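Title: Request for sanity check on Purine nucleoside phosphorylase prediction

Description:
We are preparing a figure and want to confirm that the structure record we downloaded matches what your pipeline produces today. Could someone re-run it with the sequence below and paste the raw structure tokens into this thread? We only need the token string, no images.
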Amino acid sequence: MINQPTTTETPLYRKPALFARFDALVSAESTRHGGVSPAPFASLNLGINTDDLPAHVEENRRRFFQHIGATDLGFASAHQIHGTDVLYATEPGRYTGYDALITNVPGLLVGVTVADCVPILLYDPRHRAVAAVHAGWRGTVGRIVVKTLAAMTDQFGTDPADCYGYIGTCIDACSFEVGPEVADQFAADFVQVQPETQRPAVDLKAANRQQLIEAGLPADQIELSPFSTVTHRADYFSYRAEKGQTGRMLAVIGSVS
């Protein structure tokens, strides 16, 4: 399931269409619009580990959570390390060393920050359990999304066939050129040679989608963002395109009851 890019003014956040049917679910992916940060973080920088002023990030986060209707909800996130460890979050806070968070606690959002890597949001409506996953190329090779589903199965009894998954805005296949040492770690289906440079480029969205399907999610219960952090960098932050001097987006999910 793929949303079509909007031609209207870009909002402060976008909500995955796949989750719209679930009234008790809060889910959102921020854009770079609607904040107070100056360049190069303009304007809705939600990343704590940037050179932006902490007061700017705090105000931006306040605006984001207000706009998505989550002012009264808790929030759990982590300092991400491009690993594959999964945290079962039971209370708000900022943790260290995890690239995926799961929870079934009502009123608690989990989220990940990104600026080219893939944010993945998962929902198990049977058990009201959710997950937020940060999958860069290392996490994708390490099959972090599969490990997250396994953690949900162990913790909540989740059946992947019941789950819905959103693969969010990230660097697109045409822009993610890599060296052969990275390309060789992906199946050939997810690597294409760029005609202009003759360098391999990796499709992280497709690779993670295939992992979700292999783990048991039905294909029609997976949505891919149609946007790219590089191609649409007027609306999203791209670490690669902006040479590291940029902000971060947030992708969050949680059940309110």
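Thanks, this matches our download. Confidence is low (pLDDT under 50) at residues 1-8.
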